[in-house]
Queue: 4 jobs
Job 1
Amino acid sequence: MAAKLKKGDKVVVLAGKDKGKEGEISSVDPKSGKAIIDGVNVAVRHTRQSQTDQGGRVPTAMPVQLSNLALLDGNGKATRVGFRMEDGNKVRFAKSTGETV
C-alpha cells in the first residue's frame, strides 16, 4: 500500500499524551507503522560519558503510531489523505480541501 504520510509532512497528533501537538515528520518506519516527529513524544534518555561526549540526560523524540497522526492541509486543519491519478502519476491529496499534497 502507498504511504499516506511521508518524511517532511506537517502532521497533528490525534491521540495520546501529546494530543493536539503539531510537528514535521523526521522519519517513517513503514514496517512497524510508526513515525518520529520533531518535538513530539519526547522522552529523556541517559547517555554514558565518553571521550567525545559529555553524557547526561538527552531528550529524544520517540516513535508515534501512524494511526494517531493526521496530515495538516493548507488551512492548518487535520485531514485525511486520498490518492488520485493526475497526468498519469499517482498523487496524494487532502480530502477536506481536494488540493494536491
Job 2
Amino acid sequence: MSFIAEYGSVLLVLACAFGFFMAWGVGANDVANAMGTSVGSRALTIKQAIIVAMIFEFCGAYLAGGEVTETIKNGIVDAEVISPDLMVLGMMSALLAAGTWLMIATMKGWPVSTTHSIIGAVIGFAAVGVSTDAVHWEAIGPIVASWVVTPMLSGIVAFGLFMSVQKLIINTDDPFLNAKRFVPLYMFLTGFMVALMTVTKGLKHVGLTLSGGQGILLAFAIGVLVMLAGIALLSRIKLDVEADRTFHYASVEKVFAVLMIFTACSMAFAHGANDVANAVGPLAAVVGVIQSGGAAEIAAKSPVPGWVLLLGALGIVIGLATYGYKVIATIGKEITELTPSRGFAAELATATTVVGASAIGLPVSTTHTLVGAVLGIGIARGIGALNLGVVGSIFMSWLITLPAGAFLAIVFFTLLKAIFV
C-alpha cells in the first residue's frame, strides 16, 4: 500500500499520459479504418471525416462503450491474483506498449488491431510479469476466435449488401431512379441497427433502462427519422447528364455519397462503442486502484469515470487529425478501388458486425472487420479487383500484433518495476 500512497499522484499523471498516447494511436490507426472507406470513395473529405468522428466516436464511447471496457478492465486478468502495485504498473506498461506498437504500425501505413495490441500487452505483463494464473485463459478463446469469425462475417454481409445494390439499382434500366427509391431503405436499416444496440445495451450506463419491446420500438422510430432526413437530402440531387457521359453511374454514386454520410456516422459510433475501451479499460483499472487506495477488488467493481472516457475520446480525435491519413490511404485506396456504393456496403457490414459484438461484450477488431468487408466487396467484383500484395502485408501485420504488444509490455513492465519498486 505504501507504494501507491507514496507515488499515487505521479502514477496517476503517468497513467493518464500513457492512456492519452494509446488513445492517440487508436485515432491514428483505428479511426482511420472507420473513416477510410468514406474518404477513399470521396463521399467525405478528411476534414468532414474528422468532424463526424469527433461527434459519433464520443457518443459511441460514452453511451455504449461500457460493456467492452469491462472486458478489457476485468475480463482478461484476475484482479484478485495480481497485487494492486503490480496491477497499476502492469496496466500502465500495457498502455505504453500498445501505444508504441500502434505508432510503429501507423508510420508503416498498416491497419493493425488496437484491440489485439492491448490484449496482447495485458496478457504479456500478467503472464510473464506476475503469473500465468493471473490470466483468464478461458476468456482468450472467444477473442482469438473473433479474429477469424468477424472478418468472415462482415465479408459475407458486405458481399450480400453489394450484390443487393447491383440487383436492385446498378443492373437496372433506370439506376438513378432506383437509387432514389431503394437508398432510403438502406438508410432506415443503418439507423435502426445502430439505434437498437444503443437503446437496448448502452443506455444503462446513463441510467435509462428499456424493455426489449420498448427498445425495438424506439430503434424503429429512429430508423424512420434517419430515413426521412435522407429522403429530404436526396430530393436535392438531380440527374447529371454531363457527368454520366464521363462515368455512366456518376449520378447514382452521388445518391450513395449521401447514404455514406449516414453509414460513416454509424461506423464511427460502432467503433467508439467497441474500441475506445482499448485506451480507457486499462486506464480505468489504474484510476480505480489508486482512488481506492490500493484495493484492487474494489477497483475491479468501480464504474469507468466520465473524465476517463473524455480523455480517451480527445486522444482519439487528435490521433485521427494528426496522423490518420496514412492508414486511410491503405484502407480507402490500396486494397480495392472504392466508390460510394461499394464503400457503403463495407461500412454498413462492419458497423453491423461490430455493434453485434459490442452488445455481447466481445472486444472484436474493427480493423479485421472492415478489411474483411472491403475484401468481400473486392471478391464480389472478382479476385482481380484486389491488390493481393497489400492484403498479404496487412495479414502479416495482424499476426505480429499480439506478440509485439506482449513483448513491448514485458519490456516496459520490467522498466517501470525497476524505477518504482
Job 3
Amino acid sequence: MLETVPTIKKLRAYAERIRVAELEKCMSKMGDDINKKTTRAVDDLSRGIVNRFLHGPMQHLRCDGSDSRTLSETLENMHALNRMYGLEKDILEEKLKAMAEQQQK
C-alpha cells in the first residue's frame, strides 16, 4: 500500500537514528581498545533489537489483501504511529520540500 510507505520509511529512519546514537554512546564508553569482532557484535545486537521492535508495527502498516486487516485499519495504524512518534512533522516537511523543488523547475 503506497500511502503507508512514507510512514514505514520515517519510522525506520527514526529508529535508526536512535540506534546509531545509542551505539555511539556505548562504543565511547567501551574505549578505543575494542576490537572489530566486538564492535561488529554490538552493532549486530543493536540492529537485531531495532528490527524486533519494528517488526510488529511494520506488519500492521502493510495491507496486501492476504490478511484479515482492512484498508481502514491499516490507515488507522499509520496515523497512530505518525502521532506516537511525531512522524507527521517529518512527512509534512518532506512534502513541502518536494513541492518547493517542483516550483523551482
Job 4
Amino acid sequence: MFSSSLGPPIYWGRRRMLPLMVLLLHVSAVCSDSHSLRYYHTVVSAPGSGLPEFSSVGYVDDREIVNYNSDSGRARPKVQWMEKMEDGYWEEQTQISKGNEAAFRHNVRTAMERFNQSGGFHSFQVMSGCKLRDDGGITGYHQFGYDGREFLALDTQTWTYVPTMAQAQAQITAQRWNSPDLQVGERYKNYVENICTEYLKKYVENGREDLERRVRPQVKVSGQEKGDTVKLHCQVYGFHPRAVDVKWMKNKDEVHSYETTHVLPNPDGTYQIRVSAEVTPKDGDRYSCYVDHHSLEEPLYIVWEPEKSSVWVIALVVALVVVAVLGIGGFIFYRKRNAGYKETDTSDTSSVPNITANA
C-alpha cells in the first residue's frame, strides 16, 4: 500500500517534478490576479542516474521558491523574498522534507512490487498544490506518475481519485483512497482550502513586487510563401508574467488551425512563445496576430501585410538577377575581345598590317 504521506500530511506540498515527466499546467488565457502554489516530488529507485534519489521543488506561479534534495539534506530558499519567512520555517520544512523522502522511497518500492519489477531504474513522481483564481475561487491538483507515465489524479469536482492508466495497479490505489474509511480526497480538500491557500497568500504578499511586475511583450510577424499557401509566424517575446493569449485572426474571426510552442523562459526572467498558422490568402483577407497580456491596457493586433513582403522579395530577386546578367554579359564581352586580339611577332615585319592605309 502506498504511504499516506502522499496525501494531505505533506503540508507544505512543495515539490518539483524533474524532467522525467512533465505535469505542468499549460496557461493559454490571461487571468489578471490569479496565483498558484505547486510542488513537485521525484524519487528514483536507484542511485547513479545523475539525479538526486529524492527531490522536492516548489513554485509560486512561475517562480521557483524552495528546493530540497537528498544530496543537500536541507530545504533552501530560491528567491530572496522567501527569506522573509518567520524564524524556524526552514528548519521545519527541512524536517517535513526528510519525512517525505522516507515515505517516497517506500512508495517507489511499493510501485515496483505492484508492477512485478525487482530491479532497474524506476521513478515515482507527484505534483500537488492549489490555485487562487481571480474570481476568488480555489482549485487544487494532486497528480501522480510512475516511470514517466501518468498514474493517478485527483478530480477536484468530486474530490475522488481517478486512474489515468488502464492497468489494475492504479485502480487498486484509487479504490482504496476513495473508500469510506480513508477518503483521502476529502482530507486533501481540507489541505487545499486551508493550509495550501494560506501559505500561498503569505508567499504572494512577500513576493508581490517580483510576482506581479509587468513587462510589455514585443511582437514580430512574418510569412513564408509556399505556392498558394502562406505559413504565418507570430513571435511574442520579452513579456512578464507568464500568462499570455496569442492567436491568429482572419479578418474578425479566429484562425482555429494553428501550431503553438510552450511558453518558454528567457535568461532575463521574461518569456517567449511562437504561434504559427498555414493559410491560403484570398483577395480581401486580412491576417493579424492577436496578443493579450497583463501589461497591456488593450489587446494588440499586429497585421501581416503580404503586399509589402512580396514587393521587397521581388525587388531583391530582380536586383540580384540584373547584377548577375550584367556580370555575365561583361565577362563574355571581355573574353570575346581578348580572343580577337593577337600579339604582333616583331621578328617578321612582313606580317605587320598597314594600319595607316585608311587613316
